[in-house]
Structure of OLC1v1033705C4:
Amino acid sequence: MKTAKGKGPARKDTKEALKPVDDRKLGKRKADQSSQRRAAGKQKKGQKDPNKPKRPPSAFFVFLEEFRQTFKKENPNVKAVSAVGKAGGQKWKSMSQAEKAPYEAKAAKRKAEYEKLINAYNKKQDNSADDESEKSNSEIHDDEEGGGEEEEEDDEEDDDL
DNA sequence: AGCGTGATTGTTGGA
DNA sequence: TCCAACAATCACGCT
């Protein structure tokens, strides 16, 4: 199953259909977020791999990065990250899929790079037995042309909503 | 002095 | 298949 790249986990389709509202918070996330930073800041018990690539930012985060700058410009007095999160989240939902399309496309790129990083990371893990140096790069062919960056496929489906 | 937290949604990974 | 945790940010507060 390809987990439907654009649709995401089946849970969304099922649950969201039943609960179109953003009740996804489940009330557990709050507590989780607390430990979230702890784990991230202090890393998990055995996750002491500084080379391990972090998860790619979702389209929302990509949009949020830009939104943060705009938000700060509009509200230089507001320094609360939560404010940006709320405003960003609200606007994000207000945006149409077409608007989110470019962000999703960028997020897709991040994900692609993430997979590549993970691949290299996995290779590294294998080589880390001897030495985590870069010598094993011979396996990794990084013939990635930074200049020859092809544009995203403009495959936006205009579904009227 | 230093790190945890708060808030957003999405995505990935593990069970 | 589904749940849970984590991705950035940034100033403030508590230990």
